[in-house]
Amino acid sequence: xDANDTQDAHTPNPWRITGPIRHDYEGLEIGNDRRIIAVVxxxxxxxxxxxxxxxxxxxxxxRLLKAARAALKRMAEVYRDTFDSRMDNDPLxxxxxxxxAQSTAGEAGDRP
Length: 112
Description:
By secondary structure, the chain is α+β, with helices and mostly antiparallel strands. Helix content is 42%, strand content 17%.
């Protein structure tokens, strides 16, 4: 089975910023239609540019993981078609593999 075909352990997407929140804290919630996935706490009285940027990055995570897997798969096809054996040393391949590993580290049953 290809790594691109595995069932992800994360909450189904799409994820989105569901809005600023004001409870016992100020921040931004990220979630889907069924649940809150993350809360980015505000450093001040309201969420600023950094908190919004962090929330957007978290909300984009499932899409970024899918894109990284697709790019790695496409690169493998290109390397295979050109009989180039240097794929494992390609800096982009190394970075894509590291990003995928970081985002899926707990899916095999191990926990951080």
